[in-house]
Amino acid sequence: MTVRQAGTSSADDAPPELQERFDDTIARDQRIEPRDWMPDGYRKTLIRQVAQHAHSEIIGMQPEGEWITRAPSLRRKAILFAKVQDEAGHGLYLYSAAETLGADRADLTERLLEGRQKYSSIFNYPTLSFADVGVIGWFVDGAAICNQVPLCRSSYGPYARAMVRICKEESFHQRQGYELLMTMMRGTDAQREMVQDAVNRWWWPSLMMFGPPDDASPNSAQSMAWKIKRHSNDELRQRFVDMTVPQAEKLGVTLPDSELRWNEERGRHDFGTPDWAELKRVISGDGPCNAERMERRRAAHEEGAWVREAAAAHAAKQAARTKKGAAA
Ligand SMILES: [Fe+2]
Ligand SMILES: [Fe+2]
Predict the structure, then answer these.
(1) Averaged pLDDT, 69-90
(2) Any bridge partners for residue 269, and if so which?
(3) Which of its termini does the chain have fewer beta carbons within 10 Å around, N or C?
(4) Residue 122, exposed/middle/buried by CB under 10 A (0-12, 13-18, 19+)?
(5) Residue 275 has pLDDT above 70, yes or no
(6) 141 CA to middle of ligand 2, Å?
(7) Residue 268 phi/psi, 5° resolution?
């Protein structure tokens, strides 16, 4: 990976006062900024996490993007368009945040295209009906909110600030999804069946979005110590379930989990275990749509080559003009 190391050094040869200042900043819940010294592991972990997050936003445009031309009304089309565009914007903020860590955006894109960096497993599932658009907004953006609201307090400044803006838009995404489902539930039996079918297909993959269980998530403890991450995978999954159950009741759908019930003692819901073997398969490239998503992304990258070339030529021309102006 092209990582500029200017102004930084590895923990081994760093003066102890730099490490101390870093530890102290984390302990006082203050932010690490791009110019501050940081341990190599912190920088690498963040680049990996932020890049993976950026890739997820961009790949995440595909499953719903497929429905833009088939949206049932002008209103639904406009809402879906705005939502998918928001996801592109999220990707851009996040690539910029990764660049503040010294990563190179072209390099990150290459890593995604070569399959050396991942994106969220959830986007490897197909969108079979328009109800999926609603359920993605409700579940997937809802899960994103559970994950990302605590990231607004992440220890790395640019990432935390990007999250504040992203979360505001994610809450619109969740609402548009829920409102769409409410409308369908007030419609015909066929529409209600479409909603229930979409709920059945997306529930478990959505629970998997929080990652493997805590005892199988080896990097989580270090990320929490660095305050990059604020809560464990299992805690976030639990929050999502607790938040979603009453919403499902209000909507009139059944979540497809026979073990789901309120636990009076814990004051939280008990729920079944996701199929971790399936998550592993999808992460390793063998989900229902992995090949299709990557193929589409590669084609988009190639089709966009002329735009990047034109932008670079324009920037070079501007720079030459500015230089000439300064010299005159
Ligand atoms: Fe997003
Ligand atoms: Fe979103």
Answers:
(1) 97
(2) 262
(3) C
(4) buried
(5) yes
(6) 5
(7) -145, 170
CB 55 within 8 A of CB 119: yes
Give Cα separations from 90 to 153, 165, 168 (angstroms): 17, 9, 11
* Residue 149 alpha carbon to ligand 2 centre in Å: 13
Angle, helices 141-148/157-185, rounded to nearest 10 degrees: 150
In the chain, DSSP finds a helix count (H) and a strand count (E) of 14, 2
Quote the ligand 1 centre to 79 CA distance (angstroms). Answer: 15
* Å from CA of 170 to ligand 1 middle: 6
pLDDT above 80: residue 143: yes
Q: Which two tokens stand for residue 67?
A: 């429905």
Instruction: Flag whether pLDDT at 80 surpasses 80.
Output: yes
Cα–Cα distance for residue pair 44/29, rounded to 1 Å: 20
- Region 187-199 average pLDDT: 98
Q: How much is the average pLDDT of 86-95? A: 96
Span 157-178, pLDDT tens digits = 999 999 999 999 999 999 999 9
Helices 141-148 and 233-251: crossing angle in degrees, nearest 10, is 140
Give me the amino acid identity at 89: G
